[in-house]
Amino acid sequence: MPLPDKTLAHYEWAVEARHKNQLCSVRLLRLFETYEDIWTTSKHSRAAQDLLSVTFSLWRAAFLAEKESARKKVFADGKKFLEAIIRSNAIGYAQDYSAREWTFNYYTRNARYALQNLNKFWPEIAPPYQGKTRIATDRWDYCHELLDQTLTKFEIHLQGRRDREESRRRKNENRATVKKRRRDVRLLKNRISNAKET
Hints:
Layout: H1 5-34, H2 36-39, H3 42-61, H4 71-88, H5 93-98, H6 100-121, H7 136-197
């Protein structure tokens, strides 16, 4: 029996969503690798954690978005998920998927809260989350668009910071070189002056 068009369309969306998320994951890893010295400072470490939270949450949610979003179904899936935690003391993707009415909401809420936290501490970099009712795939797309924008702005911010640090370092080196030359010239003048006197 062939797949319904709706199911096939959702699979296409899910694969594309995971692809976009993987690209963002690589961008984030590159930023972590390139600017590790900055990310580990107290000012930036929270942002690193929030960016990773958003990226992971959306990665996990991408294949869970095929859902009805009915409150009773969300509650039933949440209850089923809780029972699975108690029964087996372990959760994997299969349990996430079978309880997707609840787990999708969990992962996208986690992404939302991390995006809101980023905006709170980095309003010039992370755009505000505009809360409104969205269907599951639109909610995922919206969160991912905010992640993408935030990564782009962090990339600019981090490169700017690195450029400013490099510029300060070069200025300090130049000052040190000028001071050394002046000291060397003074010493040479003193030697010449001492040699003339003797």
